[in-house]
Amino acid sequence: MSDQQVSMFDADAVRAQLDYPGCMDAMREAMQALSQGKTRQLLRTMIDMGNRRVFAQMPAALGDDDYFGAKMVAVFPYPDDPGRRAHRGLVVLFEPYLGAPVCVADAEEITFIRTAAMSAVATDALARPDAKVMTFYGCGSQAETHLRAISHVRDLSEVRVWGRTPERAQAFAEKMGAEMGISIVACADPRAAADGADIICTLTGSADPILMGEWVQPGTHVNLVGSSGPGSAEADQALVVNSRFIADSRPNITEQGGEFIRARDAGAITNDHIAAEIGEVLSGAAAGRETAEQITVFKSIGHAVQDLAAAAYLNKKAST
Predict the structure, then answer these.
(1) Which of 22, 103, 161, 184 could form a disulfide with 93 if both were Cys (CB 3.0 to 4.6 A apart)?
(2) Would the pTM count as exceeding 0.85?
(3) Which residues are CB-contacts of 271 (< 8 A; sequence separation ≥ 6)?
(4) What is the rounded distance in angstroms from the CA atom of residue 106 to the CA atom of residue 86?
């Protein structure tokens, strides 16, 4: 048994030490490696615990001679707010030489930050360089981290937020407006929230579309993030069909990307509608945005390699 010390990062430690620029670099590297076949991972497995409760396991290896491990997470609704679900769990990281565990980190905070960092990387690659107006559908923790992350890649002049609970949207606007020093407007009308937006992020986990393709104007970039399983979709078929559709990975999206699956099952597209993986765009192997008028979509399900890359960055940072 190895006597190597195991680093522990609770939620507070992850928030304090997992900085966005460093995490974004880790996401760029991990997703290029994924598209190049250098990483190994399995599709997530989920155990239905009943009453909208799920236990998920996501194993992966960053490379043959690199860190490996898994994220284990329980996705449970809040008893006092069943429309929201918490993601509680652990990311466990092992070293590749003796197979010893070296790091255990809070999975919820890693997920919040690395998901936002990945969306920021995709936005940097796919949004127009002059994009300044951003809209969030959803006003929870993911909206907070997405605002912090995307602010690193675009000079935002205005942010809109729509939520199913107007009071929460207004509270988000006030809190994050004060933190970021930017104008944030809470929108009661979801269609109006999309009008004139250069960047749109859906962060709701809604079972059915809350963003319609007819609302999205030419030149917009959309990050579809909140729905992470085949049975739910935050955007309608029209948006999928009319966009240059970029996947985090093809197998993930063709098997578990709800928006894509609904459009495919309706006969509107085939699997060939996926123009590229984001890792291919980042490496230059495939084009991202082709014209200023094109609508681009990045569909993010999330990968264990992202969680492990974030944990590895944390572990290395703590040991230096």
Answers:
(1) 103
(2) yes
(3) 250, 254, 264
(4) 13
CA atoms of 304 and 320, how far apart (whole Å): 24
Give the DSSP per-residue string, 112-174.
HHHHHHHHHHHHHHHS-TT--EEEEE--SHHHHHHHHHHTTTS--SEEEEE-SSHHHHHHHHH
Alpha-carbon distances, residue 5 vs 8, 130, 280, 308 (angstroms): 9, 47, 37, 18
The Cα 10–Cα 108 span in angstroms is 10
Strands 244-247 and 221-224, by their bridges, are unpaired
Query: What CA–CA distance (Å, rounded) separates 165 from 150?
Result: 24
User: Cα(24)–Cα(35) distance, rounded to whole angstroms?
Assistant: 17
Q: Residue 193 — φ and ψ, nearest 5°?
A: -65, -30
CA 107, chain centre distance (Å): 14
Token digits for 64? 């043959």
Backbone angles phi, psi at 120, to 5 degrees: -65, -40
Condensed to tens digits (0 to 9), the pLDDT of residues 15-63 reads: 999 999 999 999 999 999 999 999 998 877 889 999 889 899 999 999 9
- Residue bearing tokens 């991990």: 30
Percent helix, strand, coil in the chain, to 5, is: 40, 25, 35
At 1, is the pLDDT very low, low, confident or very high (cuts 50, 70, 90)?
Answer: very low
Phi, psi angle pair for 94, to nearest 5°: -120, 150
Q: Are 111 and 173 in contact (CB under 8 A)?
A: no
